[in-house]
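Please go through this chain and its backbone structure tokens and walk me through the local backbone shapes. Keep your notes short.
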Amino acid sequence: MPNLSSLRRRSAAISVAAVGAATAVGVCLAVGTASAGTLSGSLYRDPSSAVVRWVAANPGDSRTAVIRDKIASQPQARWFANFNPSTVQSEVSEFVGAANAAQQLPVLVVYEITNRDCGGASAGGAPDLNQYQTWVSNFARGLGNQTVLIILETDSLALQTCLSSAELNARNQAITTATRTIKSANPNAKVYLDGGHSSWNSAGETANRLRAAGVQYADGFFTNVSNFNSTSGEANFGRSVISALAGMGIAGKRQVIDTSRNGGASGDWCGDDNTDRRIGQYPTTNTGDANIDAYLWVKPPGEADGCRYTAGSFQPDLAYSLANGAPNPPTAPPTTTPPTTPPTTPPPTTEPPTTPPPTGNGCVASVAVNQWAGGFTASVTVTAGSADINGWTVTITLPGGAAVTSAWNAQASGTSGTVRFTNVGYNGQVAARQSTNFGFQGTGTGPGATATCAAG
């Protein structure tokens, strides 16, 4: 993860883009009836993220419910930051394959550039740029052929103070080559380069750096991974960068904004110590802004910046501080099922439920199970009938020997045989003929589980 502390120390002394300042935190919608950007569909929720594992391992912690409902329930990026050329292809393929099976969009962060973070708290990366290209080539082979979102090398363009002129030229060429390698391996990959943030380099300078690093071969740029600036301010900055690129003859580029921690105060240099931070806009591709492809959680909420804790380590007190007092998700969280220990084989593709919605003030529930050696996860879809429902209870009958070990987006009563699941606060109200979801993990054999639903 990037050394965010050093970036914030620097940002006060670096010129700010000459764009209209906006202090309100929120979504900046485009004028008129502009559609969203080039993406559509739901984002993939990493089933083995640090926060999901922490929630599963700490069911009795007083902070768990808040962290589960407002952070662990949301799709976040998977970082690929270890120099592992022999295994990265299989790791990428497993992650992307699971997202494809869920028919959702995975977000992958490539964080492996040589001389990463200029030797700061997140120093590391490939030993040299030739080995970097080998790693990138192996990474790209695991991407498949469906849509994936690639956040390519956080801070690599905004932070260049440690590079000589020759090193800078080599880095720009390496990022250009990496972009083209990824695009060649998967033409449906959406690749975004480093745009820093609105209080670092100016929009014109950012556009110059993007052009030098081959943004013409990419889909656009990302901002705010290394800061907490408001969504509206970042959107204004992004429009200025897009305009500057267009003036250079590079048109059609779009922005993605990291909104994982920008729902509160901004302006100081370390997220580890600030209790005024809050999670920002929940992740979505439905931005309402033709210039912005997505609001993403690139920097996972609760993972440290590197000043108080080790950079990239998950800290529940940070996660709780970000989530406590923040609004609930506007819709039911994504349905990707999070096993405590990920299966070693790709989960099977599950068919959509065929049970028709009930009529009247009722509901139905369907179960999709992913089985692996010794355990399983189950995703349960609750669908309202022809009238809205306010609260639901789903009764699951498990096969013999199966036992529930954890649940998310529902409260479980019982562990084996017949287990009852009731809604949590944010997903009890379901509009007519609409659906919500919850999931659970268990030991034993899951296929064969049946479900019934009662409204109210």
Observations:
- DSSP finds nine helices and 17 strands in the chain.
- The first strand starts at residue 78 and ends at 80.
- The domain at 363-455 is CATH 2.60.40.290 (Immunoglobulin-like).
- The longest helix spans residues 165-185.
